[in-house]
Amino acid sequence: MPKPISLFSAGILFVGGILTWPIRATAANNKLPAAAIRAVANEIRAEATRPNFSKRGRPLPLACSWITREGWGPGAQLRLIQQGHFLLPSFAFPGHPNPRSYYSQAFINYYKRPLEQARQLKLPICLLNIGSWGPVGELATSPAYWRLPPRQNPDVVTAKGEVLHQVSPFGAIQPWRNVGRLWIRNAAMEKLQQWYPNPPRVIFLFDNEAPRLVWSQAPEDRRYLTRYGRGRDDYFKKQVAGDGWITRYRMLHKTMRNSLVAPAWKKHLVIIGYNAGNTAYWPYWLKFSMYIPGRVDIAPLMWDGGDVPYYLDASNPITYYTDLSPQIDFMNLALQLPAMYRLNPSFWYEISPWDGHNPAPQATAATDKLKYFARMGEPFTPVRYEGFVQFGMWLLRPRAVRYFAIPPSRAMEKSPYFRALVAAVDRIYHNRILRQWWRHGKLLVVHRRTAESGASREIRGNKHWFLLQATCNPKQPWTLSTTIPVMSLALTRGPAPNRQWLVYAEAPMGQRNSVRISIPSYRAISVNVPEGGAFYQLSEKTGGVKLVQETK
Question: Cα dihedral sign for 297, 303, 309, 310?
């Protein structure tokens, strides 16, 4: 059988170790010729503006990052686009700081030239807020809001009249309008619209971690008690809290959109929230989610999109090679996504992988996942990270894959982990077979989760297990600590007897050869599975199994 080709052995053009557009770049600065740069920009623009579902199929993903400074500003991102990579340029959200800073040289250097370059290439852009909790956080933390009288207050007001630093779905609505206007109608945002008045897509991404009243604590707000009293069941609390959040976030976002000056910004704006639409956390999602019958989640009704963490964080024993892993958790998301798209067909969905690295000098295996994995004898190398990222990508097929790292962890352009993420995205653009499968393939359901817990009657009967059976994996049932030597899934197209499948398989604990992977209602195939992942295309008509090669 053919040996899978890894990223670093593929015979394609590399720039600084990164997979690039297959046109020779100039030696001076690794930039492509102007025509090739325009061609890359055209594809980025087309995919960023393509509907989620159309006759052309799903939009291809874009690479991007949470880091917008620390040596990884918009200028550095645009350089990678000029080298042939398919990136969504991300800028720090200007917020509403001291007006004098709008005219500082640092402000002009950071925004003006990159926005002008993006304008020349007609690129989509993203303005990203991280660390300040955004406009909703301001409602909870600014004295201008939490010191308002109870009837005018957006925050939780207890039965004793105490105001908590938590926004409430039962609070006053007018402050949501006020803060939305403040964040947009200012000199900084006007300057950005002046420098790039006609982008084809503008994304506002907010970190969405402001302190909020949890639905289960609804009776702690006296306005809830006044309206509904005590003794209501959980579904009622979820419904009225969800309705309140939907009303307030819609009002906030409508105000922000209407406060923009440039018509193209108003028309093409997409406002997304971190962790919005996250129904993972396998056994616990029902307990913590806003699910009610007929409404799987409120995020598609209050946001234009969501960014979901695909994290290996040190706060829990999660790994990339056991049953307790993002790959397995995200199967719950794969089940729920169709229901979210029914609520909002244009919902922009993206994922944010994190390798769990903590750059602090005092970090240990307890606080740095890379050190933890090394101590466990399973180092999380860039190649393994690439296989891990691709599994999440092909399970959910998101609009964007947003690199997360704790700065100043690495120089982004030199980070092998960031290069691996970019390569996973670029590979789809460069390979005709993968492009078609991404656009038109259907995720193959294997069987119902055997150890399901916490599911509602509406969800319980749905099949939501997408991991293919492999001979080197233990027999089920598994525990959360069960190791999984091969993670594999499949997409399918066409009816019998002319079905086709695309199998993606990664070996998180080291390459496995001659692995038998079973395709439900078809047969088992024998393939080699590398750490960084490999794609195999199957044909029921011919019986063939073909490795999808890297293409030039």
Answer: positive
